[in-house]
Amino acid sequence: MSFLRITCPDSHKVFEVKPFGEGGGQETANRIGAHINAKVPLLAKIPMEIELREGGDTGSPIVLSNPESEAAQAFAEMVEAIQHRKRSIAGLPLGLNPQG
Hints:
Helix content is 40%, strand content 11%. It is α+β, with helices and mostly antiparallel strands. The chain has one domain (3-83). Strands 2-1-3 form a 3-stranded mixed sheet. Strand 1 (3-7) and strand 2 (14-17) form a beta hairpin. It is globular and about 50 Å long. The model has no long low-confidence stretch (mean pLDDT 85). One of its GO terms (molecular function) is ATP binding.
């Protein structure tokens, strides 16, 4: 998940918060790519939306309940990108260290 979008109900102002920082997914993709000597794309930046969480709680995927939402669109783009990949890194040692 890349950012949390909060809409204030009274003013309809939208705030975006990045609770996990920024750029970590891309950095990880770059590090994996360097380790296996191949381009590893960042597949998606999924915004955390209240509707996404609610759908997860109720078993109603946002791609079905609100396919026009930003999160649903990000999931759809990710699926499209995965479908057209010819090579997988599944099962490869990735050389990642959780300590940095």
